[in-house]
Amino acid sequence: MVRKVFYSFHYDADNWRASKVRNIGAIEGNQPATDNDWESVKRGGDPAIQRWIDGQLSGRSCAIVLIGAGTAGRKWIKYEIEKAWNEKKGLLGIHIHKITDRYEKTSSKGVNPFAEYNINNVPLTSIVQTYDPIGVDSKAVYNYIAANLSTWIDTAIATRGRY
After folding, report:
1. 125 vs 117: CA distance, rounded Å
2. Per DSSP, what are the bridge partners of residue 90?
3. Structural domain boundaries of the chain?
4. Dihedral class, residue 105 (left if φ above 0, else alpha if ψ from -120 to 50, else beta)
5. Whole-angstrom Cα distance, residue 54 to residue 4?
6. CB 3.0–4.6 Å: which of 65, 73, 159, 162 could bond 93 by disulfide?
């Protein structure tokens, strides 16, 4: 079954890595913002960014946080996590530090962005699954994500249904 998902990621640092994951094709995701589109959205300030995020999340069944070195704690990542949770969407995280960027470089592993949340005194990290894909190189990591993404999404949606 094709799932409609929203990808949350630190645009400036991880758009290249995120693009690779978004192009896997295992699911139907939101349309990526091009550099020019994203700059236009940002020029509109916080209200425009919030409207854009809200529009992108609308009609999605799951939000996937692509976790790079600087993802955790970012204002809009936090907004996307909170909005997805409050709208009862599936939620999961995937570490993408082993996927190469446009310069064929990897990055350091980022902190789990779900670690700062608690739901009824239960750490969100014990509810939301975060995956650190295995592989000896970027291609192997990509293949691991591609092989498992649909299952991860279905699991996240089912898990969210219990809370």
Report:
1. 8
2. 62
3. 4-160
4. beta
5. 14
6. 65
* Tens-level pLDDT at each residue, the chain (163 residues): 567 999 999 988 898 999 999 888 655 555 555 555 767 888 889 999 999 999 999 999 999 999 999 999 999 999 999 999 999 999 999 999 999 999 999 999 999 999 999 988 999 999 999 999 999 999 999 999 999 999 999 999 999 988 8
Fold for 4-160, please state it: Rossmann fold (3.40.50)
Vertex 97: Cα angle to 128 and 78 (nearest 5): 45
Q: Which two tokens stand for residue 114?
A: 């779900």
Distance CA 88, CA 76 (A): 18
Q: How far apart are the first and last CA of the chain?
A: 23
Q: Which residues have CB under 8 Å from 57's CB, separation 6+?
A: 6, 63, 80, 83, 84, 87, 89
